[in-house]
Known about the structure:
This protein is mainly alpha-helical. Helix content is about 100%, strand content about 0%. It has helices spanning about 1-55, 60-214.
Amino acid sequence: MAHLEEERDLKLTEIITIFQAYCRGNIARKHYNKRVQQLSAIRVIQRNCLSYLKLRNWQWWRLFTKVKPLLNVTRTDEALREALDLKKANEEKLDKTEAAYNELDKKFQQISEEKDILQEQYDRERDAFQEADDMRQRLQARKQELEELLNDQMERFDEEEEKVINLTEEKKKLLKDIQDLEDRYVTTCRKKLFKALGKSLTGQVCFQLTHRHY
């Protein structure tokens, strides 16, 4: 274990040393690059100063410094002309744009009017459709009501028909009973009549026989 810890410390020391060396090298390179840039800038400034000292008393340089503003004026005139041309071109474009805008606005107004007309037609057709749909719903409700009423009437008709059939059967039975009673009554009456006639005839015969005897 002590050997492993010693090996570990040596490795850590080596790694830390390498890391520190890398950091110091990176910092040194940054300082070196900064110093090189500063030296280059100093050389450029010195060269420009020497050039100015050589040229400031040169006649052509003085002439250039005097003519340079005039060149700027010429450039200003050219820039002004370019600006005016650009303004004119922009005005022409603006006129064309306004004409196109007016044309589009006119078309938009026309389309808006057509849209309003179509909207009115749509509203009328929607109202008519709604009215027709309401009428359809009312007719559907009335149809259902009539169907229910018809079913009720058919049920009542079936019940009444059944009652009529039962009453017809009862009537037939009563007529048969009445016919049987009539037949029985006629038969009874005939028997009584024949019996009464028999008694009457017997009485009359006895009466006649009695009177003949006397």
